[in-house]
Structure formats: structure tokens, C-alpha cells
Amino acid sequence: MRLRNTLMIATSLVLAISLTGCGAGPDAASRGIVRVTDGAETAVTKDGSNIKVRNLLLVELSDGSGTGVLVGSIINSADQEDALLGISVNGINALYSGESIMSKNSVIQFEGASANAKATIPGMNVAAGNETVVSLFFAKAGLVKINAIVRDQRDTYAGITA
To answer: Model pTM?
Structure first.
């Protein structure tokens, strides 16, 4: 009986250690994954700028018009003011309305409950599931290009409209 209990405890310890350990080691591919959304992210930290682009993506409207709508946030963490001058997707200028002047710690939010800006891209003609280049033009930070995925207008993005 004692030998059986000892074997049971030893087997349990070996299984617990081997099943809960990282079998691929410290260089496992899954260890480096930090992207938890579809949205693209980047930062501009040159010449006194500190602009962060977070969760940027496009939603292709389901009306067949080929129109895209920008979703995401732009944050200015710099001490100096900056301004978003324009947005384009594949060389097509976005129709932009809303906040453009960005003081310290201000956020331009595209879509959602706290949205303070809107950007639609008529004739974008990029199908959902593909990536495309979004160009953001800032007064001080300059040109920022970012590859963003295009999502279809369903699930989380069902309420997105032009």
C-alpha cells in the first residue's frame, strides 16, 4: 500500500511538472505574440513627436459601394501640439470630419461610443480580409504609413456606417 501511494505521488508530480511546463522552451513562437486585436499599431517618436496609432483597421461597408470606414485611435503624448491634416488609403483621400488638433494626451477616436472623428474612404475597393496601406498626414510628425486589415461589416463592426 505504501509503495502504491509513493508511486501515485511521484507520477502526479512528474505529470504536473511536464504538463504545466513550457514544452517549447523560452524561444517558443507563441511567447512573442502580443497582438490581441486585428488593428494595426505604430508610434512616431521623432523630432519631438510622440504619436501613437492604436487598433487601426478599415471596415468595408456591405452595401456594395466599395466604401471603407476607418476604425481606431490616435494619441498624442508629446508636450507640443500636433494636427492630423489628412488620411488616404491607396492614394484615395478620406472624407474626414471631427477633431484634428491634438494637444498633449488628446485622443482622436474613430468610431465607437467615444468617437470624436469620422473618416470614410469612398471607392476604396479593398475586399475584407486583405491588408492595405493607410497614410496619415500630421503637421509635425509628418507622414505615417501603416498596413491595416480590412474587416467586413458584421459582428463587432455591424454598426459601422458611412
So the answer is: 0.76
